[in-house]
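Ops channel
N.P.: pipeline sanity check, posting one input/output pair.
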């Protein structure tokens, strides 16, 4: 009957909606995982950079002290 056909068609539509929804959810999960990975990578890179900056600023301070010492020695 037409009623059964409508029900069957509706069931098919629901099923394909479920499949699309599952695909969409999977895509979102993959995108989230990729973003999380990028975030963690950039955090690691930021930490490495800030350590390099600290090390450089320490070296600059050492240099400044040496220059100061040299200029004091030259003034004598």
């Amino acid at each position: 009957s037409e009623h059964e056909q409508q029900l069957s068609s509706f069931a098919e539509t629901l099923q394909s909606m479920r499949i699309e929804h599952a695909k969409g959810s999977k895509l979102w999960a993959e995108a989230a995982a990729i973003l999380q990975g990028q975030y963690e990578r950039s955090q690691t890179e930021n930490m490495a950079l800030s350590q390099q900056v600290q090390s450089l600023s320490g070296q600059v301070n050492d240099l400044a002290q040496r220059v100061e010492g040299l200029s004091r020695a030259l003034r004598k």
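N.P.: looks fine end to end. Helices lie at 2-75.
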